[in-house]
Design goal:
Blueprint lengths: L9 E4 L3 H13 L4 E4 L2 H9 L6 E5 L7 H10 L7 E5 L14 E4 L4 H12 L2
Parallel strand pairs: 1-2, 1-3, 3-4, 4-5
């Protein structure tokens, strides 16, 4: 019997190629296994294919499917959603509250904040 492939530590959903590549490099350099998606539609397709990351790093503002729409679709699905850390330059206000998530990184964030936040979820 073949062993099932190990689930990646995290799925990084970010539309900006330079940001996506930089974050992937930093996280992989810290020993995390990282899968990437350029937008919410790609991320949903990847998850619906049976992939189960331990953490989602999600950009809020993306073309095709925003982070907010992605979260709605994710939470409406049959499988339990992994923890979600939202990455956004949008700060919450009473007029435009952010969707409920497990963590928040406000862009531009520094790498220490990124690694501390990811470590909280993945290193216990």
């Amino acid at each position: 019997m073949m062993a099932e492939p190990e689930s990646p530590d995290l799925l990084l959903v970010e539309d900006d190629l330079a940001v996506r590549e930089s974050l992937e490099e930093v996280l992989a350099g810290e020993g995390y296994s990282v899968s990437i998606a350029a937008d919410g539609e790609q991320a949903l397709a990847w998850l619906r294919a049976g992939n189960r990351p331990r953490l989602l790093l999600l950009d809020l503002v993306m073309p095709r499917m925003s982070g907010e729409r992605f979260l709605e679709a994710l939470r409406a699905g049959p499988a339990p959603a992994p923890p979600v850390v939202l990455m956004t330059a949008t700060t919450p206000s009473s007029r435009t509250p952010l969707p409920p998530v497990d963590g928040l990184l406000v862009k531009p964030f520094d790498l220490a904040d990124l690694l501390s936040t990811v470590g909280r979820f993945l290193r216990g």
